[in-house]
Design a protein that fits this description.
By secondary structure, the protein is an alpha/beta fold. About 25% of the residues lie in helices and about 25% in strands. Strands 3, 5, 6, 7, 8, 15 and 16 form a seven-stranded mixed beta sheet that branches. A six-stranded parallel beta sheet has the order 11-10-9-12-13-14, with helices on both faces. Strand 15, helix 11 and strand 16 form a beta-alpha-beta unit. Helix 5 crosses helix 6 and helix 6 packs parallel to helix 7. The chain starts with a strand and ends in an 8-residue tail after the last strand. The protein binds zinc ion (2 copies). One zinc ion (ZN) binds next to loops.
Length: about 350
């Protein structure tokens, strides 16, 4: 079978690799049919991540189930499922505590599409093995477009988690979202409005992302303004710019919450004195998406979340190696289902 590999800076290639096979009762093999890039993938492809090539790329997809082990009860061949970005057993202490991104049954950061906790394959592949199918896979409700749901695996649910962390403490708040990494900013706008934000202000240097954020209902700005200072109880940041990060902290009102969605590969200075004076909370972390996926799918099903508006292009499966080199906010790579719907 073929798998799309990151082979070096701006180098993607299809490679022939062995087809995964079921080796345990609880496993499944799935075939991605709508796969998309995580914001991190754009950095990987650009050669701006610490991850050494070669490895199979991709960790956001809706897939169809091809084969299941005898102990798999939740799904059967032909079902469409959301595949979470991380591997999780569903039974260890961390999984039971909702920290499925830190599953203790596998190496730390065991995930599709990144080579940190071993090689689990990528979701731009003909098929991948799902080692804990009952715990990991979530059936896609009928009627949800796989293209719209492709990012539930990671970025859309990541934005959901980060928005909720602030809004649970400050219901109905006016929310400031700072974009920068890619689709996470627009997804945070959508999630904040779905969670009942009074309004959302969105800051981003990138015009395309500003336009998407505006179409979702945000008031948009090209840069942080002085009047943002001490104005928000909830700020959600997807920026890796250290000045904007500092301004994000200063934008908090006393008691406010800043959720950091962007990945910093290096230690980064934060304004601890201003944070202290405001009595703020800062959260950041790799998103333990699994337990939130059903909630996010419900929001998509009800139309409260509109991820299809963030999708920038639909790409034929065989064109992925070239198409993913193009600058595109959220390209979704698709192919026909192998199973005909009953
Ligand atoms: Zn990701
Ligand atoms: Zn676990």
């Amino acid at each position: 079978m073929q798998a799309l590999y990151f082979a070096g800076q701006r180098k993607l290639e299809w490679r022939d690799v062995p087809m995964p096979t079921i080796q345990g009762d609880g496993q499944a093999v799935v075939r991605p049919i709508a796969s998309t890039t995580c914001d991190l993938d754009h950095r990987i492809i650009a050669g701006l991540s610490p991850f050494e090539p070669p490895f199979a790329l991709g960790h956001e997809a809706v897939a169809e189930v091809v084969d299941v082990g005898s102990g798999v009860r939740s799904i059967r061949p032909g079902d469409l499922v959301v595949v979470p970005w991380h591997i999780c057993c569903g039974e260890c202490a961390n999984c039971r505590a909702g920290l499925s991104g830190h599953c203790q049954s596998v190496r730390p950061v065991s995930a599709y599409g990144v080579p940190v906790g071993g090689h689990w394959g990528g979701l731009f592949s003909d098929s991948v093995l799902v080692p804990y199918a009952n715990a990991m896979l979530v059936k896609l409700p009928r009627g949800i477009d796989p293209v719209a749901a492709a990012s539930v695996s990671d970025n859309l649910t990541d934005a959901y988690i980060n928005v909720r962390k602030g809004m649970e403490r400050h219901p109905g708040a006016r929310v400031l979202v700072i974009g920068g990494t890619g689709c996470l900013g627009p997804f945070a706008v959508d999630n904040a409005l779905a969670a009942g934000a009074e309004a959302v202000d969105y800051v981003d240097k990138d015009e395309t992302r500003r336009n998407v954020a505006r179409s979702l209902g945000a008031t948009v700005y090209e840069a942080m303004l002085p009047e943002f200072q001490s104005s928000y109880h909830v700020v959600v940041s997807g920026t890796r710019d250290k000045d904007d990060l500092r301004a994000a902290f200063l934008a908090l009102k006393p008691g406010g919450h800043l959720s950091g969605m962007a990945i910093y590969f290096r230690d980064t200075e934060v304004p601890l004195w201003d944070m202290f004076l405001r009595d703020i909370t800062f959260s950041t972390g790799l998103p333990s998406v699994r337990s939130h996926i059903p909630d996010v799918l419900s929001l998509v099903e009800s139309g409260k979340l509109r991820p299809r508006q963030v999708v920038s292009s639909i790409v034929e499966w065989n064109d992925a190696a070239l198409a993913l080199l193009e600058p595109s906010l959220k390209p979704v790579v698709v192919r026909a289902r192998a199973f005909v719907e009953a």
